[in-house]
Design a protein that fits this description.
The complex is a heterodimer of chains A (109) and B (115).
Chain A: E1 4-6, E2 11-14, E3 19-25, E4 32-38, E5 45-50, E6 55-57, E7 60-65, E8 70-75, E9 84-93, E10 96-99, E11 103-108
Parallel strand pairs in A: 2-11
Antiparallel strand pairs in A: 1-3, 3-8, 4-5, 4-9, 6-7, 7-8, 9-10, 9-11
Chain B: E1 4-7, E2 10-13, E3 19-25, E4 31-37, E5 44-50, E6 53-56, E7 64-67, E8 73-78, E9 87-94, E10 105-106, E11 110-114
Parallel strand pairs in B: 2-11
Antiparallel strand pairs in B: 1-3, 3-8, 4-5, 4-9, 5-6, 7-8, 9-10, 9-11
Classes of the chains: A mainly beta (109), B mainly beta (115).
């Protein structure tokens, strides 16, 4: 079993749709959780950190479920510019970081 | 202003010919990482420095080495590149929150081609 697993997609959605991504992790000692966005042939960039209480940034909402060991990302009112690969990142502390393989999103006009 | 700089952006080398990739940062972060990313795959951590302390991942081949002469610079040396080493190499930095992982800031990457 991979340490961090994501549905690779791709997810093809129309503009304005709501889309949700899930990510599961295997190490119960994991401490920090992030969603990064990576555009084609570009470097990953932080989208948002994920906290136990959940957090929201505009159209993006992230949730963490420690008991079930998964995190989620919800994108509302999808824009064409949201098309990218979304990477789930989990850290066990001590600078040990594991990336998921990413979920590809295509938003169509 | 660029915060994590990688040079060169594209590197072509010959099979078996040593190559060095460089990374510099203006963030004064004490942690620097090197990742390898192949097409449609996750970035794979090769190693990282916590200040001067080098941390190698267990499955990183000996062919990959790293140097960090000071806080700002970090180098990735590939001693004998093979065709399978063709990939994007990403450098990242982060600060220190007493053990908790902070946000990583990535450079634009160096795309390595091995002929």
């Amino acid at each position: 079993r991979k340490e961090v697993e994501q549905d690779p997609g791709p997810f093809n959605v129309p503009e304005g749709a709501t889309v949700a991504f899930n990510c599961t992790y295997s190490n119960s000692a994991s401490q920090s959780f992030f969603w990064y966005r990576q555009d084609c042939r570009k470097e990953p960039k932080l989208l948002m950190s994920v906290y136990s209480s959940g957090n929201e940034d505009g159209r993006f909402t992230a949730q963490l479920n420690r008991a079930s060991q998964y995190i989620s990302l919800l994108i509302r009112d999808s824009k064409l510019s949201d098309s990218a690969t979304y990477l789930c990142v989990v850290s066990t502390g001590g600078s040990k970081t594991i990336f998921g393989a990413g979920t590809r999103l295509f938003v169509k006009a | 202003d660029a915060m994590v700089i990688q040079n060169p952006r594209y590197q072509v080398t010959q099979f078996g010919k040593p190559v060095t990739l460089s990374c510099s940062q203006t963030l004064n972060h004490n942690v620097m990482y090197w990742y390898q990313q192949k097409s449609s795959q996750a970035p794979k951590l090769l190693f990282h420095y916590y200040d001067k302390d080098f941390n190698n991942e267990a499955d990183t081949p000996d062919n990959f080495q790293s140097r960090r002469p000071n806080t700002s610079f970090c180098f990735l040396d590939i001693r004998s590149p093979g065709l399978g080493d063709a990939a994007m190499y990403l450098c990242a930095t982060s600060g220190d929150s007493g053990g908790l992982q902070e946000t990583q800031y990535f450079g634009p990457g160096t795309r390595l081609l091995v002929l």
